[in-house]
């Protein structure tokens, strides 16, 4: 799971850098509109596709770090076994959701490549296939992250329930 977490961190760093570049693009576009009455062509299309990409790049690290949105209203009132069952249900539901998103997005991504699908008109055309494949890849990675967290949670529960051997004291058994 260390490699997966490292990849998730790099994806998160990539998304943070992407957000910084988008901020610079927005500033340049606003300055271009205000000072020169000439906006940067394609800014809207770049931002549209980038919001999806940045969001999905951050998913795996949010899952691994336990930062996904959740409420403990029900969890606080359950015992340890009930909490475990609820967490298992949540991990499986998350894995199923993102696996379904990856599966459902794969065919449209292939179609986008085949058709040369793009956003925008005129001087700036932004191809949609990179973001579509990024959505497939990050969704599959998010599903894997949920499964990994589920396995880690079960391992922790299993090892916590086993009795820990105590060292022998008193008599010398040699």
Task: Describe this protein's structure.
- The protein has 174 residues and is mainly alpha-helical.
- The protein has four helices and two strands, in the order H-H-H-E-E-H.
- A two-stranded antiparallel sheet has the order 1-2.
- The longest helix is centred in the middle third of the chain and has 36 residues, at 80-115.
- The complex comprises the extracytoplasmic solute receptor protein and the two transmembrane proteins.
- It is a multi-pass membrane protein.
The total of helices stands at 4
- H-E string: HHHEEH
Helical fraction equals over 70%
Output the radius of gyration.
23 Å
Q: Note the main sheet.
A: 2 strands, antiparallel
Shape category = elongated
Low-confidence segments: 163-174
Cross-sheet strand order for the largest sheet: 1-2
Indicate the proportion of strand residues.
under 5%
GO cellular component, one term: plasma membrane
Pfam family, one: DctQ
Subcellular location: Cell inner membrane
GO molecular function: transmembrane transporter activity
Give me the secondary-structure topology.
Blueprint (H helix, E strand, L loop, with lengths): L1 H35 L6 H22 L15 H36 L2 E2 L6 E2 L1 H33 L13
Antiparallel strand pairs: 1-2
């Amino acid at each position: 799971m260390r490699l997966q977490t490292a990849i998730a961190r790099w994806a998160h760093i990539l998304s943070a850098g992407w957000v910084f570049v988008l901020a610079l693009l927005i500033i340049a576009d606003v300055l271009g509109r205000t000072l020169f009455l000439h906006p940067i062509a394609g800014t809207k299309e770049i931002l549209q596709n980038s919001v999806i990409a940045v969001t999905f790049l951050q998913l795996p690290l949010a899952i691994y770090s336990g930062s996904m949105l959740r409420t403990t209203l029900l969890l606080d009132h359950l015992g340890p076994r009930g909490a475990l069952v609820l967490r298992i249900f949540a991990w499986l539901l998350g894995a199923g959701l993102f696996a379904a998103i990856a599966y459902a997005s794969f065919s449209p991504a292939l179609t986008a490549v085949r058709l040369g699908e793009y956003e925008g008109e005129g001087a700036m055309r932004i191809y949609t296939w990179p973001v579509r494949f990024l959505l497939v890849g990050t969704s599959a990675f998010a599903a894997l992250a949920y499964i990994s967290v589920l396995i880690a949670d079960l391992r922790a529960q299993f090892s916590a329930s086993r009795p820990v051997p105590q060292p022998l004291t008193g008599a010398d058994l040699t």
